[in-house]
Specification:
Number of helices: 11
CATH topology of the largest domain: Spore Coat Polysaccharide Biosynthesis Protein SpsA, Chain A
Number of strands: 13
Helix content: 25-40%
Strand content: 15-25%
Number of domains: 2
CATH superfamily of the largest domain: Spore Coat Polysaccharide Biosynthesis Protein SpsA, Chain A
């Protein structure tokens, strides 16, 4: 049931962890952050910030690390480039360059060493303070039409506590995610989370509903994270902290609810899914599809013939 004793505070801030080493994409990420790898002509992290802004979160904190300066540069003004484009009267590209620097108020804090997602979120405590906040992982891009983050904010406003995005995955994939034990509520797309297990073996998973890279966290998560010992992989896991909050009442930072997401999710965390994402985004672009799709059909047809 929703907490009727107090109205939950509004969510106004987003936290975007971006301190990972991007080892899956080496050598491309040796000097370029994985978050800056392009999805057609925009870096992946810009789509994430645009999603936060679309949900009404214009205060964005990036958790960065070494060799992430290009992220800061991307969301800053580029005066020499803007002047060059202005001189060429290239208004379209000038507006595109300006757009990233005008999206949101972007702040930065460094995670000194990669100690897990929970530790990255804890690095946001000074900026977030005693307010609920969103966490958006850059590996997951959500379809523009799905408004997942906005729905999660609505659920937080109704029930309080924390909210996770859940997506049903195949049994052989559950060991790649944090998985939730759930109970129904009075809403078809909202469940109560009763337990969370980080990357369980398939035969020990509480369900096939996996946490994807969107969270709304109650500020109580910070105190829990400070007391959370390193878990799987020697890292401080956000899942472990949320599991603790799931067992608490409203006056102690709980409960935890899940939004059952059945929309479009793009996973850019590995090479094959990254390539799929680029192709899908290109096919959805009106300025590219007319030329790209016929070529793609022809290319696939040739490959099919070669495989026969």
């Amino acid at each position: 049931m929703a907490d009727t004793h107090r109205a939950p505070a509004s969510v106004t801030k987003a936290v975007v962890p971006a301190a990972g080493l991007g080892t899956r994409f080496l050598p491309a990420t040796k000097a370029t952050p994985k978050e800056m790898l392009p999805i057609v002509d925009k870096p992946a992290i810009q789509y994430v910030v645009e999603e936060a802004v679309s949900a009404g979160l214009a205060d964005v904190l990036m958790i960065t690390g070494r060799s992430k300066r290009s992220i800061e540069d991307h969301f800053d003004r580029a005066y020499e480039l803007e002047e060059a484009l202005r001189a060429k009267e290239d208004t379209e590209r000038l507006n595109a360059v300006r757009a990233s620097s005008e999206l949101a108020q972007v702040h930065y804090v460094r995670q000194g060493e990669p100690r897990g997602l929970g530790h990255a979120v804890l690095c946001a405590a000074g900026h977030v303070g005693d307010e609920p906040f969103a966490v958006l992982l850059g590996d997951d891009l959500i379809g523009e039409r799905d408004a997942l983050l906005q729905r999660m904010i609505e659920v937080r406003e109704t029930y309080g506590g924390s909210v996770v995005a859940l997506m049903e995955v195949e049994p052989e994939q559950v060991s790649l995610y944090g998985c939730a034990a759930i109970e129904p509520t009075g809403e078809d797309d909202v469940v109560t989370v009763t337990d969370l297990v980080e990357k369980p073996p398939a035969d020990q998973a509480p369900s096939r509903w996996a946490i994807i890279g969107r969270y709304i966290c109650d500020p109580a998560v910070f105190d829990v994270l400070r007391e959370t010992p390193p878990g799987r992989g020697g890292e401080i896991q956000l899942t472990d902290a949320l599991r603790e909050l799931a067992h608490r009442g409203p006056d102690e930072g709980g409960p935890v609810h899940g939004v059952l997401f059945r929309g479009q999710r793009y996973d850019t965390g590995n090479k094959v899914d990254y390539l799929r994402t680029v192709v899908e985004f290109a096919c959805d672009r009106p300025d590219l599809a007319a030329e790209f799709l016929p070529w793609l059909h022809e290319f696939v047809a040739k490959r099919d013939v070669a495989l026969d």
